[in-house]
Write a structure and sequence with these properties.
Blueprint lengths: L1 H9 L23 H14 L2 H7 L26 H10 L1 H10 L1 H5 L5 H13 L3 E5 L14 H20 L10 E5 L7 H11 L10 H10 L10 H20 L4 E4 L13 H6 L2 E5 L7 H15 L9 E6 L5 H15 L3 E6 L4 H11 L9 H6 L2 H12 L3 E6 L3 H14 L7 E6 L4 H10 L3 E6 L3 H14 L1 H5 L2 H21 L3
Length: 507
């Protein structure tokens, strides 16, 4: 894979058309402190240990629960008890255990708990040529039978609005210009049981026109009472409340890229001013989830897009996420791009590999249905989703935006090469995204070359964030276990510094 990447990068010289080949050799690590590099090496090695990710990072609400069984959405982050945290508390005590986690896993992957800590993290990223993508983590499992009630979703809404305010404040922090991004999850504002009900109707041939994006958009805009005949009275009531929450989030800041993710109320209490948010151009990205929910999520995103992605609004303000590891993604991408073009709407896409591979395959096996995922990474790459979107961006220009959210060197290298061939500017409608604390050798190389690079930045208390990190570790275990190259580059840089210091010591 690395050989392929080098071949791709060597086919063009820096002087040819201005494209500069990227070298993911860790050369940009000189921008980071020795303490940061040491922590990154230790934490990445720890997280790449399969028994820790599978068992040590299992989440359980009760010591007697099976560590392999995820708990449901109604559980507060404070009630989740990760095995790693429980073990460290037994051995070291709560205070020392918390200090250890803050200095290691929390410090590596989380910006902090207070607004000041988040701003400090963002300022540090900006000095490295990277941009922030804030995330307020709250965990929810799709198949929980526990009822949460509207209060839980309203709490998530207020957390999102507070995160908007913090995201807006980051614009005043010196650093690279560009869009402010905020990460969100749709099931923070609407229940999975409603999404499954909507999905069952959307998937039927000749789905009811009652569920058209235009009708949902009109209901969001007018606040009128919406009654869908295929839903129960309870489902209709929850749908109305969910549409209201979605509308309030987008209306508050139709100008920060927001990825709908599940957030819990945080410590920040300031209330954003709608006009200020609009003036700051914050955009909204919506995360994809499980295949049992995605058709409903896409319907809701389409409703938001019908209202907010009109060119005169300066869109796209609402983006959807597409998982390249699903077999039908290329076809859906093409249909959605053509539909947006035909309707005269701006179009925004976050393209990811996908994080639920193991669970999707297991559900298909248990239900006796066809596996919806591609058989391997090569088939995922050959689906040509990236090529489709880059071509679409080059054709539609400023009304079509793309984030390439990848930790894969070859995919990133391919994207930069095609951007150059298609004449897409480095800091234009295409950007890149990686997780905070991971794949820094790729992020730094992109940032130093002038590309727009965003790091997904969770923030919050230790109790709120650890369950979120555990879920991300389990979803991205293949990425963590495949981070050997990054570990090698970190080791090389640390040895280089050690030897340089040794040679500089006077006799």
């Amino acid at each position: 894979m690395l050989r392929t990447c080098r071949v791709l990068c060597s086919q063009a010289s820096p002087s040819a058309g201005g494209w500069r080949p990227l070298n993911f050799d860790g050369g940009a690590f000189h921008l980071k402190g020795t303490g940061e590099l040491t922590r990154a090496l230790l934490v990445l090695r720890l997280c790449a240990w399969p028994p820790l990710v599978t068992h040590g990072l299992a989440v359980s609400s009760d010591p007697g629960d099976c560590p392999e069984v995820p708990q449901g959405p109604a559980l507060s982050p404070h009630s989740l008890s990760p095995q790693l945290q429980a073990w460290s508390q037994r051995l070291l005590g709560s205070r020392l255990s918390g200090a250890l986690l803050r200095a290691s896993i929390y410090g590596q992957f989380v910006a902090g708990e207070t607004a000041e800590e988040v701003r400090g993290c963002v300022q540090q990223l900006q000095t490295l040529g990277l941009r922030p993508l804030l995330a307020v983590p709250t965990e929810e499992e799709p198949d929980s039978a526990v009822k949460t009630g509207e209060a839980w979703y309203e709490g998530n809404l207020h957390a999102m609005l507070r995160c908007v305010d913090l995201s807006r404040g980051l614009l005043e922090t010196p650093g690279p210009t560009g869009n402010i991004l905020m990460q969100l999850k749709m099931t923070a504002l609407t229940s999975t049981w409603l999404c499954k009900a909507l999905t069952s109707w959307v998937r039927r041939p000749g789905a009811s026109l009652e569920l058209s994006p235009e009708r949902l958009a009109e209901a969001m805009d007018s606040g009128q009472d919406l009654q869908i005949s295929c839903l129960t009275a309870e489902q209709n009531q929850h749908l109305q409340a969910s549409l209201s929450r979605l509308h309030r989030v987008v209306q508050v800041r139709p100008s920060a890229v927001v990825w709908l993710r599940c957030w819990a109320p945080g410590a920040l209490t300031t209330v954003p001013h709608p006009q200020h948010a609009r003036a700051q151009h914050v955009r909204l990205l919506v995360d994809a989830e499980y295949t049992s929910l995605n058709p409903a999520l896409s319907l809701l995103v389409a409703a938001l897009a019908a209202r907010w992605n009109r060119p005169r609004e300066g869109g796209p303000w609402v983006w959807n996420t597409y998982q390249a590891y699903l077999k039908d993604t290329h076809e859906r991408l093409q249909q959605d791009a053509e539909a947006a073009d035909g309707a005269g709407l701006a179009f925004g896409v976050k393209l990811v590999r996908g994080a639920y591979l193991d669970k999707e395959r297991e559900v298909a096996r248990l239900q006796g249905t066809e596996d919806p995922t591609q058989p391997d990474c090569e088939a995922t790459s050959q689906s040509r989703c990236l090529e489709l979107m880059l071509t679409h961006v080059s054709r539609r220009g400023p009304v079509c935006h793309l984030m390439v959210a990848s930790h894969n060197e070859e995919s990133v290298c391919q994207a930069t090469k095609r951007m150059w061939e298609l004449g897409i500017p480095l800091d234009g409608p295409v950007c890149f995204g990686q997780l905070l604390g991971m794949c820094d050798h790729v992020s730094l190389a992109l940032g130093q070359a002038g590309y727009a690079v965003y790091k997904s930045i969770p923030y919050g208390s230790l109790e709120e964030v650890i369950p979120y990190l555990i879920r991300r570790a389990q979803e991205n275990r293949s990425v963590l276990q495949g981070a050997r190259r990054e570990q090698e580059l970190l080791s090389q840089e640390l040895w280089r510094r050690l030897l340089r210091r040794g040679l500089s010591v006077p006799c």
